[in-house]
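Page header: ASSEMBLY MODEL / two components / 1244 residues total.
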Amino acid sequence: MSDSSPSPETEKKVPAEPRPGPGGGRGPGGGPFGGHGLTTPVVKAKDFRGSFRRLAATLRPEMGRIVLVILMAAISVSFSIAGPKILGNATNQLFQGVIGKQLPPGVPKSTIISGLRAKGQDNFADMLANMDVTPGKGVDFAAVGRILLLLVFVYLLAAFFAWAQGYLMAGVSQRTVYKMRSNVDEKIARLPLSYFDGHARGDILSRVTNDIDNIANSLQQSLTQLITAVLTIVGVLGMMFFISPLLAGISLLVLPLAMGITMVIAKRSQKQFALQWERTGDLNGHVEEMHSGHSIVKMFGRQKEAIEVFEERNEKLYDSSFRAQFISGIIMPSMNFLGNLNYVAIAVIGGIRVASGTLSLGDVQAFIQYSRQFTQPIAQTASIANVFQSAVASSERVFELLDEREEEPDTTTPMHIAEPRGAITLDHVSFRYEPETPLIDDLNLEVKPGQMVAIVGPTGAGKTTLVNLLMRFYEIDHGRILLDGIDIRDLTRDELRTTFGMVLQDAWLFAGTIRDNIAYGYHDATDEHIVAAADAAYVDHFVRTLTDGYDTKLDDEASNVSAGEKQLLTIARAFLADPQILILDEATSSVDTRTEVLIQKAMKKLMANRTSFVIAHRLSTIRDADTILVMDHGRIVEQGTHEELLDAKGFYFDLYNSQFVEAYEEAV
Amino acid sequence: MLALLTTYLRPYRKQMTLVLTLVMIQSIANLYLPSLNADIINNGVAKGDTAYIMSTGGMMLGITLLLGVAAIIGVYWGSKTSMAFGRDVRAAIFRKVQTFSQQEVNIFGAPSLITRNTNDVQQVQMVVLFSLNMIAAAPIMAVGGIIMALREDVPLSGILVVVIPVMAAFIGAIVVKAMPLFKAMQVKIDRVNQVMREKLSGVRVIRAFVRTGYERTRFDDANADLTKTGLSVNRIMALMMPALMLIMNLSMVAIMWFGGQRIASGAMPIGNLTAFLTYIIQILFSVMMATIMFVMVPRAAVSAERIQAVLRTEPTVSDPETPAAACVEKGFIEFDRVEFRYPGAEQPVLCDISFSAEPGEITAIIGSTGSGKSTLINLIPRLYDATSGTIRVDGVDIRDMNREDLWRKIGFVPQKAFLFSGTVASNLRYGDQEATDEMLWHSLEVAQGKKFVSEMPDGLEAPISQGGTNVSGGQRQRLAIARALVKEPEVYVFDDSFSALDFKTDSRLRAALKREITHATTIIVAQRVSTIMHADRIIVLDGGRVVGIGTHGELMDTCPTYREIVYSQLTQEEIA
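Prediction written out in full:
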């Protein structure tokens, strides 16, 4: 919906550029194979340890489950690691059968071995000596069957536990981020208005969405992956040593090499990805500007430059993205290369060992399978480490928000006004947004029930400041504001605000039906109430012309309803809320003339019998006002009735003459 | 998608061929390794021939090296080609959009053009990258693996006939089940974002109406809904990997069982079994890879279609082939029975518009929303072309002029003051890069912007963020006006450019403009009567037609529509 709300115009801090959250746009690149940790530039946490601890603390309620997840992952990994070894046993059975069948039946194994040695076939003899062969007997399928059955069982269990831990982890991560989102949302309700005025909305939003999404994904993926990867490396290494310390030693040589290569490449590719990221931003920024300012670019004759700048940035992006993709793309082939190198070494040395009888064929086969499982988790851990880092950085940004100073709590002993009359007194009120810039100094104002106060002044004079103070969006520095004689700080904020109604120039409506929007200030409104309010705001007829009437959904841009009609809806909303005091903001912007008339009529009707503060742009309004506050540069410079102020011949006199009189005199 | 790929990958035919050749070499080498391993077992191990083991091992080493080199060269050219493809498509879109008139821009909308020019290209580019670097190997590996498997043992390969369909069906089922959930999840993430965005933008209203509790529930509903879907998605996806591994492992068990029987019967040597296992894993892995394509391609195809839609669109406004000679006169504008309607529209937006304006004059256009005011002035710089009738600038039909020449004559201040990122100065110099600082200050003074710019810490060099979001709406408008003034054009066009200014600034600005612009023509669109009351000529539009032309005084007497507008803004008592 409309995203402007009255913000203190004087407090124009340069809005912080909404930082792209680490998970902000899943960066350019990002392969389907666990590579994404290498493709997004890592945003490092400022205080990694501290934020990590807090993230861990957030996970505490899930601790039991997490332990279970780790346990199940361990079981699953153990089973899948056992697999190849068992498969190797089956191979051995087959191999024994094959060899046994070649040997003459009935002859004892020892006789055959000595016979072979006599013929000089020492290798073959050694191999036979170490095998459980019965000469003449073929493959023992009963044994093979038993082994394979065990294998099926083991693989089934491995799969089951892998699935179960993923299933559990889904719950852990989803519940955790649900809670984080909830916490942020609750926090937002307790933050003072100054926080919203001083922070770019995009930045807050990105913490609630991108950062938390990033944490969710990391929890789901990296935690289980990390556990599995580490366990796999350890387990596989253990099995490899168990089967053959020599071959394991050779494979172990590969380990530091693999880690080294991964680290070097990851570091370089990260740098390139950061550059690619930055240049993508540069290029997209340019494209955004040139397409949105299309006609201006053309009419001011800047098309050539637009294309030149584009070409230059496009080329730069190409250059860095090519480098980034190439460097990160090397990881897979490098790991494959190392894996293959290992494979060849095992095949050759293992082959020789089998031939010499010191190793069984099944073990070599198992070993080959292990070595294949070995290099992948190493590359994986490197990328997970990065994902993890960015998750911690994201959680840090969320914690930052959660640590922001909150609104002063309501008084513990609130007073209550049974029937508000709408008398407002400002008693020696002083206020400033920033300590160095005085805004409101010692302001005194007496407003009787039903009176109208007009606030006038040039653009940027800070006319909304007073609204901020009356509604206690900001706290005054000195003095008191009294509502029906009671200091507003002695009331709960809710009670205070219930007495007020607001109709702002930028109509804020939420995505929902027209009915819900009108009923916003009055929860139990019946249909009759709603229609009556709409009718009072002259918008009933319009609503009924819509296909869905009061059930019409206002979409994000509310494009089906014009600016003027939106304003009428907010007036209807205020009618229904029936507050004692009104804050109105007269429209200056383009509303077509017929709607404009309706808005004026509706506002006038709404103001009847209520105290009202009007940010005024119309002559009729200020002439009718009981008191006029004249503001300039955020300060109240003059105060009085129309006549008094004109007689004073001060700022108001000038303002009045230039803003209003000239136009009307000539109109006559 | 195919058309886009063939067009923009054509220049890289050679590189593509190289990459594919390299992929082929890699696949064959990858498949050859297990076969050599089988040889080692059959001929070396089983016979105790160490020399054979060593020499075959040497060959394997050579192949491994070849594999590594081929892979790296392949990745190099694969990355280079796909990124160059992305670059070329981006450039093509950007250049195309530059030829568009406002009409084409409006068809797509600027935000959509931006997405098409950036994210959509990204999508397609990534598919090209993955295809070249990873996926291209999949079919080759699969086919090669099947051939090799058949070579090792034909009957045993029968297992593939069972496993591949099972795997494909399983992956298919997961995709079918998960895809809608993924989509639903995106919708729900959007919903959470939307509620949060509303809470942030409406924070004052929410607190004023004491609806914080209600808003909590609203957010919580969205949050819980998202969590629920996220849970389903992740639970389904948790099934994926374990199940795929299980299928692979069980196929290995099956191979051991049936292969063992083949070996026992002497139909297959035992070394082939080990090789066979490796092939099966490779084939199944390729099938997995291929399914990733099934997920990526449909998304990229949508993007490609969106890109093609831009590239296919032909601009409706273009320069004449033989432009008219430059004219001597300056600032004369003439509308001659101009009509404009959107393509296929039943009703014209503008109809039978005729008037003329001269240097030193102010022509104002007023009318209610939808009366066609903005459209009318957009016709002058040919953001649209009139569908009938003629618009002449300095006596020449604007369709006979080079648009660059036409635009040079016009200083346009749009309804939405659009600023570029940079500094105040770089924005002001947008139409005249040679302008001196004095000229900039002078223009700012006229545009009532001198005060606030000089109050900025860096003055003219103060930074302006993208879209000018770091200055207020009124300041943006004044900067946009100053920008047009710096250009010193023959014709000024103000499209409701004073709306964000308060009356006082508005009136000062108008007075200053009146003093400043003496030799140029001014055309103003406005909502406020007070803004245009002094114009030499007021054109009142209603429903796309001129219902009155004259001065304020004349129109008050003769034009009821004008009177209605005036009365709605200045109530009766004020006029009387």
